[in-house]
Amino acid sequence: MTNRAAVLHAPGDVRVEERPMPSPGAREVVVEVTAVGVCGSDVHYYEHGRIGDHVVRAPMILGHESAGNVVEVGSEVSRHAVGDRVTLEPGVPCGRCVQCRAGRYNLCPDVVFFATPPVDGAFANFVAIHEDFAFALPDGMSDEVGALMEPLSVGIWACRKAGVSAGDRVLVTGAGPIGLLAAQVALAFGATEVSVSDVNEHRLGVAAATGATRTLGPDDDPGEVDALIECSGHPAAVAAGIAAAITLACSDGVFGSSTPTTTTHGTSIPASCGRRFMAAMAPQQQYSSPPSAPTWGSHMSIVLPRDPKNTTGGASSGPTVRTASFIRPQSEGVSRRLSLKPR
Ligand SMILES: [Zn+2]
Ligand SMILES: [Zn+2]
Fold first, then answer.
1. Are residues 81 and 166 in the same domain?
2. Which residue would you say has higher pLDDT here, 302 or 218?
3. Global confidence as pTM
4. Which residue among 8, 126, 153, 260 is least crowded, i.e. fewest CB within 10 A of its CB?
5. Is 169 in the same domain as 121?
6. Distance (Å) from CA 48 to ligand 1 centroid
7. Residue 338 C-alpha to ligand 1 middle, in angstroms?
8. pLDDT-derived band of residue 263, with 50, 70 and 90 as boundaries?
9. 189: CA distance to ligand 2 center in Å?
10. Rounded distance, CA 331 to CA 119, Å?
11. How many CB atoms lie within 10 A of CB 302?
């Protein structure tokens, strides 16, 4: 077998090269990659060769939103078998540091994260990863959707941090992929009004098509909201979002000043505004979905209905999906059976 990979050598310079086949460590699985998303971080590395302090100094394989099939397992692997379809959580922490032991393994300073220099990513035929960071995919979920579990985790984490729940009015600023996913998670969490703002008409159209109850241009007043999820990176959007949420939050005794003042994209968020201001891309949340294990466990339950009467798929007898329009029920039969291991 050959392992071809798309390797970034310099900004704008990606070459397809052969790389050695990965061999699994004792608790690793080798996955044949079948779908990979393109993250904003991949675009930054491709265009600029860096994101802040993360600088590509040697040729590196991009891509960290991936799914595929297990083709080989290490000697001590117990959670997966050859043939399993899996989605990959792309950051493997050390498991020993203070943050890992406190359950905040997303903050592990020694995390090994796909496509973050100098670690190679998933734009390759094969990758190896610790078995605990591969998650079995249900039959009703395509490989492409499986690859989107990683960015979905950002939306899940943002909505959890913002305390989104039934009846909430949520404002999502920014209708890029992360904002669109966060908006759909907010709906899945029970929000009744989900407004999405952006400057791009096309993106607003996608937001409307994927469930946003209202779309807002740059000059539209968002009114009053219960929670703000900032996904634009634009200071003006942050300021407008805070204005929309500030009156309510500051007059609501639930939201005190326990949250320290944070700064996101140059805009200060007053401490008194409490926890419902959530910047999906704020530094501490930047990478994935802490604590990832419970977050990743939420993916399937959010995307897949429990009630078989809700399924709308075609030939597949497996579960199909509801919330997100990008996650459409598969209409064709499913060729591989899921092998979910008992935990
Ligand atoms: Zn990403
Ligand atoms: Zn650690």
1. no
2. 218
3. 0.75
4. 260
5. no
6. 16
7. 26
8. very low
9. 30
10. 37
11. 21
Domain of residue 170 covers 154-285
Question: Could you tell me the CATH number of the domain that includes residue 176?
Answer: 3.40.50.720
Q: What is the pLDDT of residues 119-153, one digit of tens each?
A: 999 999 999 999 999 999 999 999 999 999 999 98
Structure tokens at 171: 């404002």
Q: What tens digit of pLDDT does each residue of 191-210 get?
A: 999 999 999 999 999 999 99
Distance 133 CA to ligand 2 centre (A): 14
Q: Would you state the pLDDT for residue 304?
A: 60
Ligand nearest to the CA of residue 41, numbered in listed order: 1
Q: Say whether both 14 and 129 belong to one domain.
A: yes
Pair (227, 121) in one structural domain: no
Average pLDDT, integer, range 15-30: 97
Domain total for the chain?
2
Mean of all residue pLDDT scores within the chain: 78
> Distance, CA 61 to ligand 2 centroid (Å)?
23
Task: Let me know if residue 35 belongs to a domain.
Answer: yes
CB within 5 A of ion ligand 1: which residues? 39
- In one letter, which amino acid is 103? G
Q: How far is the CA of 230 from the centre of ligand 1 (A)?
A: 16
Distance 260 CA to ligand 1 centre (A): 26
Residues 120, 190 within the same domain: no
24 and 117 assigned to the same domain: yes
In a domain? residue 186: yes
CA of 75 to the centre of ligand 1 (A): 30
* Token code pair at residue 155: 């939306």
Q: Give the model confidence (pLDDT) of 146-187 as tens digits.
A: 999 999 988 888 888 888 999 999 999 999 999 999 999 999
Q: Residue 93: inside a domain, yes or no?
A: yes
- 122 lies in the same domain as 163: no
Distance 96 CA to ligand 2 centre (A): 5
**Residue 4 Cα to ligand 1 middle (Å):** 22
Which of the ligands is closest to the CA of residue 98?
2
